[in-house]
Design goal:
Elements: E1 11-16, H1 23-33, E2 37-39, E3 42-44, E4 58-60, H2 63-71, E5 75-81, E6 84-89, H3 90-99, E7 102-106, H4 109-118, E8 123-128, H5 132-142, H6 147-161, E9 169-172, H7 176-191, H8 198-206
Parallel strand pairs: 1-7, 1-8, 2-7, 3-4, 8-9
Antiparallel strand pairs: 3-6, 5-6
The structure holds adenosine-5'-triphosphate and ligand LQESDW3C.
Residues 17, 19-25, 138, 141-142, 173, 175-176, 179 line the site of adenosine-5'-triphosphate.
Amino acid sequence: MSTEALSDDFLLLIVSSPSGAGKTTLCGRLRSEFPDLRFSVSHTTRRPRPNEVDGREYHFVDPNTFEQMIRIGAFAEWARVHDHLYGTSLKEIEIARATARGVLFDIDHQGARQIKASLPEAVAVFILPPSLAELERRLRGRGTEDEPTTLRRLRNAKGEIEHYGFFDYVIVNDEINRAYEQLRSLVFAERCRRQRRAALCERLLSERRFER
Ligand SMILES: Nc1ncnc2c1ncn2[C@@H]1O[C@H](COP(=O)(O)OP(=O)(O)OP(=O)(O)O)[C@@H](O)[C@H]1O
Ligand SMILES: Nc1nc2c(ncn2[C@@H]2O[C@H](COP(=O)(O)O)[C@@H](O)[C@H]2O)c(=O)[nH]1
């Protein structure tokens, strides 16, 4: 990690997991505790769930609009996940840079790799369920997907876990409070990285005080 890459205080935090492991729940808590960490609202071609609001959880668009956005280079990253298209627009990152102290991405491992390729200072966290049986219980318990979608997501889980080696941190979401405590600790720790403090150190060193 280069000093230059971390020379500002802006945190790019990626959270990924297999479907149902709990990243939306954990990101929701982060958003409440750290309002200066702006949630990146992705574009997707999947249909909204009953409780989801366009522009809040996602920008819900049709496939033609999504493909047009790909053509004009509007995305920082995009991927096909569970048979739908999902993408992070460059605009989301620009807005976060202009208005917040960081940006929180809830994206899959393909998107995480693309973000890291262009923004290597990004910090990537993978959330694991304690077991596959518990993953299934959670996804079914959430009750948002029909049976074919549930099965597709469960069948994709191992393929996603295979990518754990790419991530900087792995958190096991067994007990939600414990997992959240670990995630928030990461935010604090990342904000204390030496490289993010370089500007302050240089400023203190340049002050003309206590000099003989
Ligand atoms: N530690 C936990 N213990 C028990 N249930 C949990 C825990 N964490 C999350 N859940 C529940 O599991 C379900 C799935 O969680 P959530 O929607 O956050 O998963 P997700 O990883 O965001 O899934 P997706 O990728 O499908 O959006 C939700 O009903 C949530 O309340
Ligand atoms: N590569 C990207 N993946 C994304 C993005 N937004 C969400 N996701 C991932 O998709 C799945 C499914 O999400 P769901 O809301 O339909 O359950 C999950 O792994 C998300 O992290 C994105 O912009 N790019």
